[in-house]
Amino acid sequence: MKQDILDIAGISQRPTRLTASLVGMIAAITGVALVAISGWFLTGAAIAGAGGIVAVQAFNYLLPSAGIRGLAIARTLSRYFERILGHRAALIGLADLRPLLFARLAGADISEITSRSSGTIAAHLGSDVEALEDLSIRRIAMTAATAGALAGLGAALLAGVAPALMLVLGLALTLLMTRLLAPRLLSRHYRDHGDAVQSLKGLYSEYANSSVELALYGQAERVSRILEVQGLRIDHSRLAIVRGEGLLQGLQLALASLTIAIMLASTLAPLELQALSALAGAGAFEALGSLNHSLLQRARVTAALTRLSAIASLPARAGEAGGRPIPVCATGPSITLGQGNEATTVVAGGRIRVTGASGSGKTRLVMHLVGLRRDAPQSILVGGAKVNELGIDILRNIFAFSAQEAPLIAGTLADNLRLARTGVTEETMWSALEVACLAKTVRAMPEGLETWLGPDGARLSGGQRKRLSLARALVAEKSWLVLDEPSEGLDLATEQQMTSKLDAWLRETGTGLVLVNHRSGLDWLAKDVFKL
Amino acid sequence: MPVTASEFFAAKSPEVRRSTLWWSADTLGAALFAASLAAWLGAGIGPHSPQHKLWILSVLGVSGTVRAIVQACASRHGQRAANAVKQRLRRRLFEALLPTGFRRGRLPGEDLRAAVDDVETAEGYVARFAPIKAAAVLSPLICAGLACLASWVAAAIMLATLIPFAIGMVLAGNAARVEADRQLLALSRMTGLFVDRARALPTIVSFGAEERATRQIASAAREVADRTLLVLKIAFVSSAILEFFAALSVALIAVYCGFSLLGLLPFQAPEHLNLGRAFFVLAMAPEFYLGMRRMAAAYHEKQQGEAAASALQPEVERAEALLEAMDETSALAGPLKIEALVIRYDDGSCIGPATASWPATGLHVITGPTGSGKSSLLHALVGMAPVASGRILVSGSEIAPGNLNSQIGWSGQRPFLLPGSLQDNLLLGAQMAPIPAWQALVARLGLETMLNARGANLAIDPAGSGLSGGERRRIGLARAILSNRPILLLDEPTADLDADTAHDVAVVLMEVSRTRLVIAATHDPLLLSKAQSEVTYS
Fold first, then answer.
1. Each residue of B472-499: pLDDT tens digit?
2. How many domains does chain A have?
3. CATH number reported for the structural domain that contains residue A233 in this entry
4. Taking every annotated instance into account, which residue ranges of this chain make up the domain ABC transporter (chain B) (predicted)?
5. What count of CB pairs under 8 Å joins A to B?
6. Smallest CA–CA distance from A217 into chain B, residue
């Protein structure tokens, strides 16, 4: 399953990745060869120089010195292309992963969506996918590292079987110890770090909402101390991570020089081959460094992969595939709230108010009705079918919902209205804004419908947001309109005006209404009441 | 006055210097390896005792351990330096940003990013970039100096390759800056989009607009990938330049030494080389560029650190200036008066002028249509909205907005909760002994059931899980009353409440207003009918 995500994302980039791996191998091999041949050439030259004029003339210096220059250029070029191609494969491949994950989540059961906070989802699409980018780039580095280690090994063989064997042992020991120790030394601290960052963010955004009170009651210092504790947790785990990584990288450095000393002690090969094998051994260890680095990151990447595959493997919502229609009359289905004697049924085009004291669950009931929740204790039937059996894919073709908190998206006014359905004309938008009593305000804005609202409609007042959310529900043109506290935050005059326009619109279009309200100004819209 | 990132983070601490010294000392560890390998090969030519050889191999064997310890110390000191910087910075940011967030009119997400993410970005700058940058100057010099002991020509070759290298890096660096800025912009836009669409996902699904939102995510993600690739291309060109010169210096030194050893130099040999010396300089050649390679690897952290510093500095200074202005001597409560008070927000929208005169006691309301500025006036009285002109007077003398804050009990739209017990939260503003009958007041506000069910000592978390909007609002109201402060400013005290509870609240407010000044922003007809004066916005 984990494999799947990377494959889905990387499939289009497979040729690039293969080329990158190939050039990466060339880069690693030329890197090892460059130092090895330099060492061999120098030692050979010294021996020849000491051997007198005949030996000097017998020593072929042209080939190795040209080779050294050639290798220097080849290495630089191949490294450049390895990096560019590797990053292209990773970045472009994973850019497609983000919308794919978003679509999976958006297509999953509604409880999967509402149980995740927006911060968590953003972190999945952002930093978790980034961790995979890292992994994808490292995979290429790993092929290169393996090639480099093998090249070093081949060069060591020239000095004899014993030093080559020692090198294999040294490399294997390094890999094994890193693999064994990395999770022990690092996993816990990476997790602590992630948790501490999350809780600091959570606490900060809570307190940031109460900025005025913090100032007035002189609580800023006290809150700051509370937050600083989380900050200290972050810093402690970072220091522990740095310590652990230092230990693991140090282990590799220590084993490298020890291995080379043992290699030299175990060979009787000519001096120039000793030089060659020692430097090639150092090169092999250096190549292994990037392999080890990816082992160090393993904990982080595994955690990210697990989270992402949980999203990627979410099953599509039931009903999405079948899309079977429910029994409805021409104008739309009826709604039945409650059971037995208390049951209230409204036919298509009818109107009903849901009332009850603060905290009695009005919002929960209507959100359940439109398919965004499943925890209302009351029985709810739509078109005679239990609402839980219908699912959001059917319910959203029946209901247009304006929620209590009136969530808006970052974008323009028009972007928010276009969300309601495809192919909305400007004319439709204006007439909806007219009913919602927002048209005048929008006309006064210099950029009209194209006014940028900022994240979550930040530039609008509470009442304006409510009205825009209402207008969006009107634009959707569904058979039922479901409104949760549509006039909260409006003054009485605007409320009255909006109510009568809404009444006219409902009659004209034959749309039904389910209404939740505290304020009595809306009461006359619906005679039927369902009391909680 | 804008300062550099290094000054803003105060990145020149003794810990950073220690880290720099350790990074530079790494060159000595490398020299140990190079020297012992060279000595081994040098010993291979002439006659040497086995004991001597064993010594050489032992030094070679432990040279890696020396390097390991040195590098670990360098990273640790760097991280310690960064931790100290982050802790100072967090305290400064939290204390300045939290109480002024509303006044500065920032979106909650923006401050969150500054106080958490940007602080984490400082880590890379202080822990790695700052010490490595200084070491990148020191370690090549140490390296060339050590090489000079064996062969001054080789040292000269190393230093000579530095000149074209520096020119190449400057050219690439300038191009990188422009692209990196654009990439950071695209990145932060994409992150914003993720948060936004994730938050609105239930709405998107309930209107069936998934495809549309997915398309927007796809195009933003593509744009970031393209921009990132552009930045990386430049970064890779500069590291290719770096590697080319590193490889070139290895090749030049190898060829020079080789020909010198063969006695085939086309010119008079400037010095006498043997295998040991030659091999030592060859092995040191890659180390000459290592410091700069490390710096190039930390370049990204430099850019991010600089971007964070330039975003943080103006905001935190603005916040601190606002705090200072509010913090001046507090006036004593008395009859309160505003004259032609005009509030002007950064986006140009303007509220007022408003004029009102409130006696020292009584229930008074501010009313008017939605969006007309009721809350803004309350905020202006406590220094949380930008006052453009007009005056605030207490007992006849003018005060600056915010100077009366210690006399004001406040209840806003969304009262905050501190971790602690419910009782702690209710008595938060009561510096002196709480009024003994505080439980009775809480009961009259209709919070009794909740209090009995949960217990006054029950710990609550700041998210206030389990509390409804109306309960939270009444906790804020009770807190304001229990603070015993002579002036109460209340924003919509009866919103989110059903009619019965709203009535109870109004009665309590009437009672409190006999001894204190209560000013409420509201549309509630009940409160309007009981008010002794009304300020109306239109």
1. 888 888 888 888 888 999 988 887 777 8
2. 2
3. 1.20.1560.10
4. 336-535
5. 438
6. B429
